[in-house]
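re: ur question from yesterday

yeah so i grabbed the chain u mentioned. its 158 aa long if i counted rite. heres the sequnce exactly as i have it in my notes:
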Amino acid sequence: MTFDARTFRNALGCFPTGVTVVTATGADGAPVGVTISSFTSVSLSPPMVLFCLDDKSNCLARFQCGGTFAVNVLSDSQRDLSLRFSGQVRDKWAGLAYDLGETGAPLLPDCQANFECVIRAVHDGGDHRIIVGEVLRIGYAEEGKPLVYCRGRYADLS
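ran it thru and got these structure tokens back, copy pasting raw so excuse formatting
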């Protein structure tokens, strides 16, 4: 290898990504959520998506044991939610309105899209887990712009 981890990360940052908050309900009934930009579709039939979660994440076990999760695709007006779920905020859910989907996973309001999923596989991905889910339910907005991240900062699509 002729490059270090920082160089690799900087090169990956050239690829703009949407910003999501992936949510679940833990075995204890408490909601869990984390900002994720490594989200993608896997299959149309059956409809499947995946997201990647750092092995050091304090919510990894809660996602793996829950069986279901929701991917909330943030709109460009939801930067505050991205920051809330990416940081070390003690209670990420304090004062936050949300609904529980039919799978029991929290659905954030006013998102560009919500995908309710059941976990079908968890794979080793180096220092991350690759969590694959089959999509059971979706909702999406006909209008609006997604929140986009590129080169270490939020980007504007206009």
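noticed a couple things. The chain has a mean pLDDT of 93. also DSSP finds three helices and twelve strands in the chain.
anyway ttyl
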